[in-house]
Amino acid sequence: MSSMKRLHVVISGRVQGVFFRARTQDMARALLLTGWVKNRSDGSVEAVFEGEEDDLKAMLAWCRKGPPAAKVTRVEVNEEPLSDPFESFTIRYV
Fold first, then answer.
1. Catalytic one among 39, 40, 74, 92?
2. Which domains does the chain have, with CATH numbers?
3. Does pTM surpass 0.90?
4. Which of 2, 24, 29, 57 lies deepest, with the highest CB count within 10 Å?
């Protein structure tokens, strides 16, 4: 039985211009997660992560800190149904 899940995450604080997306991609790939990450116009970072529950927990723990120059003030997490699985983890540029 698989414990695959999809989480939709919005990270607020000083999270743009501090390599948040690139480090998020590195961490997600290291954990074998799929999905995407992008900057939002309101200054936050949005991501969707798919993977095993333990790996998702590790990813969320990382998101609550971020890279060294980041200052995370809030992480909103919503579980979504798994539908079309992603093939890799990408940075989306809007």
1. 39
2. 17-91 (3.30.70.100)
3. yes
4. 24
